[in-house]
């Protein structure tokens, strides 16, 4: 059976070789590209029909959709702001948290500068902390991000870097962090 199919295939192969030799390389390439295009079109046609059926499906009714909650009012935002503030009486504990995080990040932190402030309009107390740290650039940023995550009522106001030489792996940085505090209820 195999020999008979080879005999029938041989004249077809001979005809293809003769056509290729007469037509030249450019014509053969054009025929090959045409065949590839037709095969791709035949493959994509069923997928396109399935996509059209999917797009023709009706949209869900408005009652089936989940409604977004209304945006908070100004008073709700203000009360959320005051609820997020830290308590003034625990400011030293927050400084201890910052020192612990600096130690975990592998930074050298000897002492900081601290200054209380008060905004009469908002009745918010600010506690500004300036921390001079030494360590790798990556560890300093790791510390800053972990500090903001650990103390949600803190803001990183300023970061400045200093290095003695370009090749020096140790960076000196100065971070200014402000804690926003309220009086204890």
Tell me the total number of β-strands: 6
Shape: elongated
Structural class: alpha+beta
As residue ranges, the low-confidence spans are none
**Biggest sheet architecture:** 6 strands, mixed
Distance between the termini: 97 Å
| Helical amount | 40-55%
The count of helical stretches stands at 5
Please tell me the overall pLDDT: 86
Radius of gyration: 36 Å
Strand percentage lies at 15-25%
The ordered H/E elements are HHHEHEEEHEE
Characterize the structure shown.
With 185 residues, the chain is α+β, with helices and mostly antiparallel strands. It has helices at 2-23, 25-56, 74-84, 91-104, 137-150, and strands at 86-87, 108-109, 113-119, 124-135, 154-162, 171-182. Strands 1, 2, 3, 4, 5 and 6 form a 6-stranded mixed sheet that branches. A hairpin with an 8-residue loop joins β5 and β6. α4 (91-104) packs antiparallel against α5 (137-150). The chain starts with a helix and ends with a strand.
